[in-house]
Amino acid sequence: MKLRLIPWLAAALFCGATQAQADDDYDDRYYLLPMGSYVLADDARNTDDGYGATLAIGKRITPMFELELRGNYLTYDANKPDRGVIGGVLCGLLPCPEPEDVEISAIGAGANFFLGRNFYLHGDVMGGDSTLMNAGVGLHFGGSDGGWGLRVEALYHDDEGDYEETQFNVGLHIPIGSRAAPKEVVEPAQVVPVIEPAPAAPVAPPCELPAAGQPMTLEGCKAGDVIVLRGVNFEFDKSKLTVNAKTLLDMVADALLRRTDIKVEIDGHTDAKGSDAYNQKLSERRAASVKDYLAGRGVDPVRMGTVGFGESKPMTTNETDEGREINRRVELKVVEIGGAAVVTYAPTPEGGTAVEITEPAPAAAPVAAPVTETLVEPEPEASPPLPAPAAAAGGNSQVTIGMMVFEPATITVPAGATVTWTNEDGSNHNVSFSDQQSGRMKKGASWSRSFTAPGEYPYQCSIHGAAMSGKVIVK
Known about the structure:
Blueprint: H1 5-18, E1 30-40, E2 47-62, E3 65-78, H2 84-93, E4 102-114, E5 119-128, E6 132-142, E7 149-159, E8 163-175, E9 226-228, H3 243-258, E10 262-269, H4 276-296, E11 304-308, H5 321-327, E12 329-337, E13 343-346, E14 355-358, E15 373-376, E16 396-402, E17 405-407, E18 410-413, E19 417-423, E20 446-451, E21 455-461, E22 465-474
Parallel strand pairs: 10-11, 16-19, 18-22
Antiparallel strand pairs: 1-2, 1-8, 2-3, 3-4, 4-5, 5-6, 6-7, 7-8, 9-12, 10-12, 13-14, 15-20, 16-17, 19-20, 21-22
């Protein structure tokens, strides 16, 4: 009879081993399981159905497996036979044993194999008054929050292999102690690709004088921008630059040499002391002085125009020393970027019309003629030559440079004549024809050129532009 239990246990072990993976979040506390038991008695017992109690203490080992220590107490009431009259007489004459009640106590071990959260297979073996073997199924209700639960079991009950019965158990599942915190699930680290931010668009530097110790740049400038050259000062009532002014203009020259596509206008301004006419001339000379210095540092004079505004454009009041100091200034105005001609506007009296001054296109070169040129530096004590007449019948002719003009502006000479230009101005000048030009002429310096072929020979001072020009007519 005992061999009948083997298939049940084998089925339980197989189902438990092959169940689907259960929830890892399980209650691993010890628990008590008091249950009431009811047994459908085997007919061979000659008793009524049994009843009793089962007590288990167990622990969940894995999400699907529990071990238990179980004790079982069962009692069966004996059947009282009805012998009738004949039976009573016979039992009175012969020994006739009375059926007795049956009590069974046993203790042992068992296991539960869960096939999900609630359904499980059960098997146990117990020894005591009899050797008991139980196998079957169970259901667990409630207790998901860590509290008490309800269990119901239906078992095949084998007593010594002599009796095969069905046993039902119903009881409470009581956890012992506090439930441990659920295990934190550590997500695998995700490799997130690093996305480099797009480089920020370069910010153009402001079109202004740099801070002390910083190089000057024109990279952020556009046409129409004006830079006030604070620190470009002159000797009192003169157009002669101070030492500090030259240092600042060195940076301006370097910036212009780096940006050869930029053309500028140099504007001179004065305060309101003195007459309008005097201040106008002074502002023109000071603007020209700045241009001369920048040209001396290698900046092409063609890229620079000059305008004197006198006292006509004050930045603030002329009633205070501080205000007058602000109004005395030189400005660098960006006129064109990209090589277009410089356009400037000379100041006009109130109600007048501005006069546009532009760089002319180079004049067509006359037929090449033999040229003899001589650059003569002045003697220290030499007195300035007298102004030359406007025309000469032959021989040599003189042109004087003074007050930013050639005098005379047009001179007529015969073929074979030599013309000499002498600088009597405080600024540096040169004489520039389309085919040749003099070097830089300081005050008192002279330069000569001979003309052998008839024609018209226009020229200008390339340092100061088309506003300072003249013409030689050879008959």
